[in-house]
Amino acid sequence: MTKKLGSQVLVTGVAGFIGSHLAERLRSMGLGVTGIDNFSNGYEENLTALKEDMDFKLIRGDILNPNDLSKACEGVDSIFHMAAQSSVARSTEDPIHDFELNTIGMLNVLECARKADIETILFASSSTVYGEAPVPTPEEHPLRPISNYGASKAAAEAYCHSYSSLYGLRTASLRYYNIYGPRSRKGVMFDLLQKLRKDCHRLEVLGTGEQKKDYLYVEDVIDATLLVSSSGKLKGEAYNIGSGESHTVKELVDHILRNLGLNSTKVIFRGGVSWAGDVQNTLPDTTKIRKLGFAPKTGFKEGTSIFVKWYQSEYGKISGR
Ligand SMILES: NC(=O)c1ccc[n+]([C@@H]2O[C@H](COP(=O)([O-])OP(=O)(O)OC[C@H]3O[C@@H](n4cnc5c(N)ncnc54)[C@H](O)[C@@H]3O)[C@@H](O)[C@H]2O)c1
Taking the alpha carbons of 176, 177, 178, 180 in that order, is the dihedral positive or negative? Predict the structure, then answer.
């Protein structure tokens, strides 16, 4: 695997949730890691394990700044592009910012790679590129995003494909579904816990609770990402990265309350769509990634328990007493 990635790897968005886990894994494989982050949504504490590591180089910089990016690309053999504006809601409020970061940011990374002769680029795309699609959704399904975030990711995927075709870069787009685990400070699991920390007697949940999503634990997403980098077809191909199982928000609420030992919390579902652009039912067809040998190691129940434990260790115990 390391032969294909080379010896020095760049992780953009390294101080974020997935980027920081990925950087740690790459270091544990013996690869040198350069990380770039502007800390707009990154956390210093996500990099605690790498702080004293001589083979980890942090560039505090912006992927929209060509100078920062070319500095980050120095001596690099492969790139994992994780930096993004990753909120669907924010992409509705500020579509231009979302496009700049997610699409132009991707183009900047590809252009920098082309100029620096970096062959391999793995791109963190998103299941939102499909919009509301029949499930399980295969990679070949037409991309009809219903959010600006999904649209900016779909456009970025298109550039990965054109750069492979025009310049022979080895690229793949990883369509991540809902990823969760320690250091995830956004998304439905985090929001539910934040609300319960404020008031554990009453929980108001966005939507009907019947929204059904695929959840994948963060270490599994790293496994899948590395599998694509080592054994995938890197010609602008897309890969669905999910568990292949979906769960309703109601199920998720039940697990979380059980984990916290809360049995008398009044749960109120607000009804309607959770937020504009939210896809109500997601489930990937995972045949393609499973053919590479992928099988998730952490199930939904176990992963939720780990997440609840991590949350309480960071933000304090949630207790009904
Ligand atoms: N977490 C999920 O459930 C999920 C699902 C689908 C796709 N993704 C994609 O995976 C990738 C990683 O997601 P995440 O959850 O770790 O997000 P995150 O927001 O935690 O991490 C993104 C990182 O990028 C950094 N960043 C933002 N703008 C930057 C810029 N201009 N220059 C340099 N750094 C910048 C942020 O500071 C942050 O540290 C993103 O591309 C996201 O769109 C995530």
Answer: negative
Q: Whose CA is nearest to atom 18 of ligand 1?
A: 16
Q: Report the pLDDT value the prediction gives residue 275, as an integer from 0 to 100.
A: 87
Contact, 79 vs 9, CB < 8 A?
yes
Active site residue 177: no
Q: Is the pLDDT of residue 2 over 70?
A: no
Instruction: Give the number of the atom of ligand 1 that is nearest the alpha carbon of residue 127.
Output: 6
195 three-state secondary structure:
helix
Catalytic-role residue among 43, 130, 149, 311: 149
Mean pLDDT, rounded, for 216-228 = 98
Which are the contacts of 244, defined by CB distance < 8 A and separation ≥ 6? 136, 214, 283, 284, 285, 286, 290, 296
Spell out the domains of the chain, with CATH numbers in brackets: 2-179+215-241 (3.40.50.720), 184-213+245-282+298-315 (3.90.25.10)
Tell me if 222 CB under 6 Å of ligand 1.
Answer: no
pLDDT band at 4 (very low <50, low <70, confident <90, very high): confident
Which of these, 123, 135, 131, lies nearest to 171 by C-alpha position?
123
Mean pLDDT throughout 216-236? 98
Atom of ligand 1 nearest to the CA of 149: 43
Pick from 321, 192, 199: which is nearest to 269 by CA? 192
